[in-house]
Amino acid sequence: MTLVTRMGCHACELAEQDVRRICTELGVPWSSRDVDADLELRAEYGDRVPVILIDDAEHGYWRVEEKRFRTALLG
Questions:
Q1: How much of the chain is helix, strand and coil, in % rounded to 5?
Q2: Overall average pLDDT of the 13-31 stretch
Q3: Which tens digit of pLDDT belongs to each residue from 24-67?
Q4: Does residue 16 have a pLDDT over 90?
Q5: From CA 68, how far away is CA 41, in angstroms rounded?
Q6: How is the beta sheet containing 51-54 ordered, strand by strand?
Q7: Do the beta carbons of residue 52 and residue 58 sit within 8 Å?
Q8: When you count CB atoms within 10 A of the terminal residue's CB, does the N or C end of the chain come out lower?
Q9: Domain 2-74 has what CATH class?
Q10: DSSP classification of residue 52
């Protein structure tokens, strides 16, 4: 599970808190990537951060939909 974020993005900070809490509860490893540090990520997701990727596929963006996110992680 990867969270694509941007430095200084308040929505990204909130999403990271949710992702950290839920993934810790479920024992799911996760990482974050800075959209501005990767030209391909910026081209794909630049205006839609934060973006949640599960198995490298886009799951959602802008906010964590907790029930849907948990279901996908347990899937």
A1: 50, 25, 30
A2: 98
A3: 999 999 999 999 999 999 999 999 999 999 999 999 999 999 99
A4: yes
A5: 23
A6: 31-34, 2-5, 51-54, 57-61
A7: yes
A8: C
A9: alpha beta
A10: E
CA 59/CA 75 separation, integer angstroms: 13
Give the residue ranges of DSSP H helices in 1-75: 10-26, 39-45, 66-74
Dump pLDDT digits (tens) for 59-70: 999 999 999 999
Give 35: exposed, middle or buried? Use CB within 10 Å, 0-12, 13-18, 19+: buried
Q: Which residues contact 63 (CB under 8 A, 6 or more apart)?
A: 11, 14, 15, 50
Q: Which two tokens stand for residue 66?
A: 């907790």
Place of tokens 């599970």: 1
